[in-house]
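User: Hi! I'm working on a homework problem where we have to compare a predicted structure to a textbook description. Could you give me the structure for the chain below?
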Amino acid sequence: MTDNLEYNTTRERMTIPEYGRNIQKMIQHIKTVEDKDKRTRLAYAVVSIMGQMTPQHKDANDFQQKLWDHLHIIGNFELDVDAPYPVPKPEVLHAKPQIVPYATGKIRYAHYGKHTQAIIDKVSEMEEGEDKDILTRIITNHLKKSYLTWNRESVNDDLILDHLRELSGGRLQMKDESQMLNTADILARNVVKKKPQKETRKHGGGKKRSYRPN
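Assistant: Happy to help. Predicted structure tokens:
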């Protein structure tokens, strides 16, 4: 009986494991069928089963084409059937992905982050008007909150305005400085965020007592 057992180490490697070994065996069987019309009918049947096995992707626009692509990939591109889509090319499948270049631009102030610089650049390109003024105020207050979070316990507003002018190349300027958030309010919010939660422990008699960690 043990002679009929199959082990994963001796089986053929599964090209796309998510469909399982039975689908792979079906596709390999289709390759042995001599009549092309019959091969095509069997291919359609197997693709239908593959679709039922991956219902989470059925709403994708190219869902059916992906199923047929997977059929050909599992069949090692050796299936001669009348498919509704072009057969994918093996060289495209095995092509090495393009190298994604790393950003080399230096961040002038690391505590503001690269995304903040990108937003400043975008807003700087806007036409003058109320929308630009509102966004400038939001950005300025964001700079101040970021500075207080990562640097010091207090900051001079003039320093934040200088950073805004520097990061925007002089293109952004807060027109009403009274709209800047109060430093004390920002620090108070930071303290609330960092404040430890009360914990509850059971003591003798089943009573609960709240305490704060030292």
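For your comparison, note the following. Residues 130-150 form the longest helix (21 residues). The first strand starts at residue 199 and ends at 202. Good luck with the assignment!
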